[in-house]
Structures are given as structure tokens and as C-alpha cells.
TrEMBL record:
It comes from the Eukaryota. Belongs to the ATP11 family. It comes from Pan troglodytes (Chimpanzee). One of its GO terms (biological process) is protein-containing complex assembly. One of its GO terms (cellular component) is mitochondrion. Pfam families: ATP11 (PF06644). This is ATP synthase mitochondrial F1 complex assembly factor 1. The keyword Cell wall biogenesis/degradation does not apply. Keywords: Mitochondrion, Transit peptide. It is found in: Mitochondrion. The keyword Methyltransferase does not apply. Its main location: mitochondrion. InterPro entries: ATP11.
Amino acid sequence: MAVSDPAAFESRLEKRSEFRKQPVGHSRQGDFIKCVEQKTNALGKQSVNRGFTKDKTLSSIFNIEMVKEKTAEEIKQIWQQYFAAKDTVYAVIPAEKFDLIWNRAQSCPTFLCALPRREGYEFFVGQWTGTELHFTALINIQTRGEAAASQLILYHYPELKEEKGIVLMTAEMDSTFLNVAEAQCIANQVQLFYATDRKETYGLVETFNLRPNEFKYMSVIAELEQSGLGAELKCAQNQNKT
């Protein structure tokens, strides 16, 4: 569902008959967000969906003992070379940045990302489950509730954090819903909102989790547009359209 008018998004959701069947009824935005968070908690607890690996450990990707002899820069190059030819998202995150993200995720484990579509935006809800970050489209939660499956999982591996000062990350996605560029846009928003030094930006995450009645969907889109993260994706989409 692309949302061409984010300001009208909230009222449209409250009018949908599906939400009148939910425990929160057709109540205010804060209750709606709490309902979303409750249903999102089931992400990561579902049986493994197509395209996803159960218990995807770092040792299943490469020999941890062997790379311990390498420097952080050498490990970074190995990680990048390994995934360069694969259709997926990957990163090497500095330990300090991951610690900031991780500490914030403990108190604010759920958030909303906006994915640019050819017309408007589609919202995805992210939920931390251990060091895995699961995403699914908001419409997926709306229609399937707790049965909603993950459409993107970001796997973070802190095994080398203390010794090498880096955290390795890769991802798996359901390619029927997302391509690599779209998954990358969502992954970039994790750092945009959770690793920022800008109080107002992380403040949106806190508001979503702690003061949902005050949360404004349009603020997420405004931050995304200001960052420029979605501009490249939208440009590619427009080129494909023509």
C-alpha cells in the first residue's frame, strides 16, 4: 500500500473495518500503535519463512577462529568481498555505533520506516529480537496480525566487537516483496534513526515507543527526505517507470 498523502494515513486506518475487530477497537492513534507493537512482537517467533535461514549464525558464514588472526580492516574486506556478488544487504558497523544502536533498542525495540514507492510511501515496522531486526510491511500486520511474517531480517554479529571493534551485519529478504535496493533503504534508516547524534531524529523513535499518542507519521517521511536516503531509490524507480 503506497501512501501518497501521509497526513491522511492515520484516519484511513481507523476507518478500516479490520481495525474495528481488533482489541483496541477504532480508538486513538496511541492505542493503534500499541496494538501494532503487540502484534509485531510475534516477528522472529514465527516458523522460518521462505528465503530465510533458521539460526543464521556467524560461524555458518565463515570460520571465526581463522579471521581472529586478521585485523579489523582485513575482516571488513573479507566480509565485503564475500557479499559483493550476492543479492543482499551487508555492512561492517563500528563497535561504538552498534553499542549506541543496541542500547537504544533495549528501551525502544520497535519503530516505523518509510519506503519510497513510485507514488508515495509504504510503511514498514521493525522489531528487534535479540540481535536480529525483523521488518514487515504495516499492511501485513494490519491484515494478518500476529501471523504476519518477516519480509526482511537484518542479522547483527557482535562476536568480534570486543576484540576487533566491529560488528558484522547481513540480511535476508523475501524477494517477492522487496528487492535489494529497497532492503538497503530500510537498513539505512536503522542507522538514521537509532545511531543519530541529532536529538530530534532519535526523539521520533522514543515517541513511537513511549508516547505513541504524540507520534506523527509525516515526521518519519520528513526525516527520510531530509537525509536524502530515499532520493536515490525514488530516482531508480522513476527511471524504471519510464
